[in-house]
Each structure stands twice: as C-alpha cells, then as structure tokens.
C-alpha cells in the first residue's frame, strides 16, 4: 500500500472518528448547567482545535504504522485513540466527569509515552504529538476543575 494511502486512511480514521463521536456526544444542557472554571474556552473552539489535532494524530499514526506496524509505539498510538474516543461518551454521554477524569489522565499518560518512545526513532511523529499533549493537559485541568466545582 502506498504511503499516501496509509496517511489518508489514518487521518480519515482519526478525524472521522473524532468528528463522529463529537457529533454523537454533544455537550448539551447537562454540561451547560455545570459550574465551570473561569478559563473554560468557548464551545466553538473545540471543533476546530480537535480537527487540527486529529489530522496531526493521524499523520503520526501513519508514520508509526509505516515504520513499525507491530510495535509498542503503535500499541500506544492505538491505546491513546481508544482512550480519546472513550472520553466523550463517558463525560458527556454518561455524565460522569470523575470517570472522565480518570480516562483523560490515562490518555495524557499514553500521549506522553508515545512522545518519549518516538523521540529518538521518529522525531517528527513525537513533535506532531506535542500540541496534542498540551491540549490534553489543558483539558485534564479543565476536567479536574469541573469535578472539583461540581
């Protein structure tokens, strides 16, 4: 399979999956009723931010798949996608912010481990995950604040 096809498939899976889950599990009235910290971004910011991040995640996943299909870094990539896609159904769908916090902490750890594992062998993939790590760090703080305030 051509590398451009692999990249397209990984980007489509990450972006398409993320957009579908975002559409299926919208924040809604329950989320609006929660007490949120002063640093909560406006709702309109999440879709464009995540869209960009999903493209970066997809590229890093494709690069890892091309280089090391059955490897610990590839397993980390898959794990972070599972955790990423699990968070919205738990937080918004089940309305369980505390459980969502546990998931997002595991997500952040898997992102950081991916960066560490890719740093020497594929610095580009590691760097593609840095904005993701920063955003999920912020999201973890936001999730923890919501748990604390509610």
Automatic annotation (TrEMBL):
The keyword Amino-acid biosynthesis does not apply. GO terms for cellular component: membrane. The chain crosses the membrane at residues 44-62, 74-92, 98-116, 128-149. Its main location: membrane. Keywords: Kinase, Membrane, Transferase, Transmembrane, Transmembrane helix. CDD domains: TSPO_MBR. One of its GO terms (molecular function) is kinase activity. It holds the Pfam family TspO_MBR. InterPro entries: TspO/MBR-related_sf, TspO_MBR. It comes from the Bacteria. It is found in: Membrane. Belongs to the TspO/BZRP family. This is Sensor histidine kinase. It comes from Metarhizobium album. The lineage of its organism: Bacteria, Pseudomonadati, Pseudomonadota, Alphaproteobacteria, Hyphomicrobiales.
């Amino acid at each position: 399979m051509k590398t451009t096809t692999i990249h397209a498939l990984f980007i489509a899976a990450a972006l398409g999956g993320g957009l579908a889950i975002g559409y299926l599990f919208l924040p809604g009235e329950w989320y609006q009723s929660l007490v949120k910290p002063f640093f909560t971004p406006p709702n309109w910011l999440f879709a464009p931010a995540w869209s960009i991040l999903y493209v970066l995640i997809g590229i890093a996943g494709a690069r890892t798949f091309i280089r090391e299909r059955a490897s610990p870094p590839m397993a980390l990539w898959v794990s972070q996608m599972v955790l990423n896609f699990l968070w919205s159904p738990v937080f918004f769908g089940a309305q369980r912010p505390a459980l969502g916090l546990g998931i997002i902490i595991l997500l952040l750890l898997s992102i950081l481990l991916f960066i560490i594992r890719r740093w020497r062998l594929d610095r580009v993939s590691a760097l593609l995950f840095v904005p993701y790590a920063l955003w999920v760090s912020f999201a973890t703080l936001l999730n923890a604040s919501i748990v604390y305030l509610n």
